Amino acid sequence: MDLNKLREKMPFVWKVQGKAKTGKTGKTICVAYIDARAVQKFLDNVVGPENWKTEFSQPYFAKTVANRYKNGATVEIEADIVRVSCKLSIKVNDEWITKEDVGEGEDTEATKSAFSDAFKRSAVHWGVGRFLYDLGIQNVSAEELRECKYNLTNYLNNRLENNSTNGKETKQEEGSLDDL
Q1: Using an 8 Å Cβ cutoff, are 107 and 92 in contact?
Q2: 99, 92 in Cβ contact below 8 A?
């Protein structure tokens, strides 16, 4: 088994993460994303379904005050959050090696989100999906969103490919995940 294959690219999509608050650009913040089932399938293909396993902690439930950006203003709301840790173990030379991380879910489907998040984050420790961080955050205007006709993934992948072949650096314009 070649553990370096865990670092290879795998199918991913772009999703809208939120609106940039800084400036008056009307930009939408988009991030590259993989779902938990894609990670499971990837692990099955790379190491074999019998050579990986997960163990989750008991979920921790709490309430928190969260900031939401609505109608041009930041509002505080009370939100339910769930935190859980995931140990992802891979069998290497007849020995189970474990990597662990924590996930968090909020509001609707908080528990499912926390488990998926913890699993994907522990997989990143093995190299799975790490390439997504190199793609950075992409800002998309309302006009671009209309132009891509509901296929954000193809649109942004083409934009990134065109920028790299034209020698342009892809840079974050305005806004970041901290702005949400």
Answers
A1: no
A2: no
Q: Which class for 7: exposed (0-12), middle (13-18), buried (19 or more C-beta within 10 A)?
A: middle
With cut-offs at 50, 70 and 90, classify the pLDDT of residue 173: very low
Please indicate, yes or no, whether residues 57 and 119 belong to a single structural domain of this protein.
yes
HSE-CB of 22 using CA atoms within 13 angstroms? 10
pLDDT at 127 over 60: yes
Greatest Cα pair distance in the chain: 57
* pTM given for the model: 0.79
Please indicate, yes or no, whether residues 157 and 113 belong to a single structural domain of this protein: no
Pair 54, 88: CB distance under 8 Å: yes
Residue span of the structural domain in which 25 resides: 1-34+129-180
Specify whether 56 is located in the same domain as 115: yes
Per-residue pLDDT at 22: 56
Q: Is the pLDDT of residue 160 over 90?
A: no
Cβ neighbour number for residue 65 with a 10 Å cutoff:
8
CA atoms within 13 A on the CB side of 112: 6
* Range picked from 30-44, 64-78, 166-180 for highest mean pLDDT: 30-44
